[in-house]
């Protein structure tokens, strides 16, 4: 079957909706109710962007919108698109995907066997049945109070905005599997979003990232208040599953504030992530129990004071993640390197 293109809403109040693109032509996106793709939100201009499809080529063009059109985190006036690209308009994130194009139905000439037999007139008298009695007039329906409606596109499957437990409307929400956190933070940085990004990770982990004008200014881990902002943010970047939700927020609590740009933090955090991945074959799993090797033949006097501190923390915490939490001023990468050293030298092992 031939391939076709579609837009899937992967974050925002229309999350889960899809819009199948035509093989040729133009598709307008905006707030106007007459457009093919309607995004009914204040941050979207009436005519916001235009998609032009020419076979396998597709281009998006911003139509002078107030808040801009973003492709993979970059604000664009016009850009070529390819499958997998993410488009941010307002608070909606769409992903361009390929799908199977349905084959056009072919008209078939009915066969003679499929024709009903013709009636044969054998001269019998025709009997005309009396016409049925007219039905009783139906009672007029009771008037119902008018219900509020949400403006939606007739061609795009969309959802009403959900409400969070605090009663505030979700502005942007989605799954980490669909949009990795580095990508979503880059989008928020480029579009200068402000709010509280609540991230839920694996095994009940949760973090609050406070964002001001596209910059992460504070990061907090639930259950580990001693972990400072930079370390908390870099750890959240490692989460591969879970969900995120950007909530309206104007108040940032007390804590270590970050002053670096989003770009700098992401580059440094991803560098640490790459280094940790290289250590992964020698590093015990985060939640695996760690125990001291007994009998210990390695000499404690051969260790540096900083490494001795890590050894004592391993004995107290019992896991890699617990040990990392006990050193708020050390990066997770530095702690992991010390743990790998202790494993290789025969001081500790996975229990």
How would you characterize the overall build of this protein?
- The structure is a single chain.
- The protein has 351 residues and is of the alpha+beta class.
- The protein folds into 3 domains: 96 residues, Tumour Suppressor Smad4 (Sandwich); 99 residues, no CATH class; 70 residues.
- Helix content is 19%, strand content 26%.
- The strands form 4 sheets. Strands 2-1-11-10-7-8 form a 6-stranded antiparallel sheet. It has a 5-stranded mixed sheet with strand order 4-3-5-6-9, with no helix packed on it. Strands 12-16-13-14-15 form a 5-stranded antiparallel sheet.
- Helix 1 packs antiparallel against helix 3 and helix 3 runs parallel beside helix 6.
- The longest helix is centred in the C-terminal third of the chain and has 18 residues.
- It is elongated and about 75 Å long.
Order of helices and strands: EEEEEEEEEEEEHEEEHEHEHHHE
How many structural domains in the coordinates? 3
Distance between the termini: 53 Å
Q: What is the share of helical residues?
A: 10-25%
Reported for the largest beta sheet, the result is: 6 strands, antiparallel
The pLDDT mean sits at 81
The poorly predicted ranges are: 109-130, 143-170
Tally of helical segments? 6
- Radius of gyration using CA atoms only: 30 Å
- Count the beta strands: 18
Strand content: 25-35%
How are the strands of the biggest sheet laid out side by side?
2-1-11-10-7-8
Which class of secondary structure composition applies to the elements?
alpha+beta
Give the overall shape: elongated
